[in-house]
Specification:
Elements: H1 3-11, H2 15-29, E1 41-42, E2 53-54, H3 61-70, H4 75-82, H5 86-98, H6 100-116
Antiparallel strand pairs: 1-2
Helix pairs in contact: 3-5, 4-5
């Protein structure tokens, strides 16, 4: 069965069953890096997110990483932009690069939740 077929089947499930499935998938995608002794990354309780956050902030690690990519920033520029130690940026990069599947799954879930609320996630052009 393809990933697309799995997604289509998952969308047919009830909300509670979907949440249970997503939780199980996320659990299975988590790697040993989740239990590593991170200096700058921490877990936070969330109903379905399992990715790490920047310690001391309500900031998802993927937000920093995606911002770096989108704005073509070096680690040094990101550290300055986010007012974080350079070592925190390196930890964030390492975590995100090793947990791409988890981040993708969570992004897909967030997109689905927004769309079911009628919130458009497609980019708009400025007039």
């Amino acid at each position: 069965m393809s990933l697309q077929e799995l997604k289509e089947q998952a969308f047919k499930l009830s909300v509670s069953d979907r949440l249970a499935l997503i939780s199980a998938l996320i659990q299975s995608l988590q790697t040993d890096s989740q239990t590593e002794d991170w200096k700058y990354l921490v877990t936070r309780p969330h109903p379905w997110r399992r990715q790490l956050y920047i310690k001391g902030r309500k900031l998802l690690v993927s937000t920093v990483w995606q911002d770096m990519i989108a704005n073509k920033m070096s680690a040094e520029q990101a550290a300055e932009n986010w007012d974080l130690p350079l070592a925190a940026i390196h930890e964030a990069i390492n975590y995100c690069e090793n947990n791409r599947e988890l981040l993708k799954l969570e992004a897909d879930e967030e997109r689905y939740r927004l769309e079911t609320k009628g919130i458009s996630v497609e980019p708009t052009t400025a007039a």
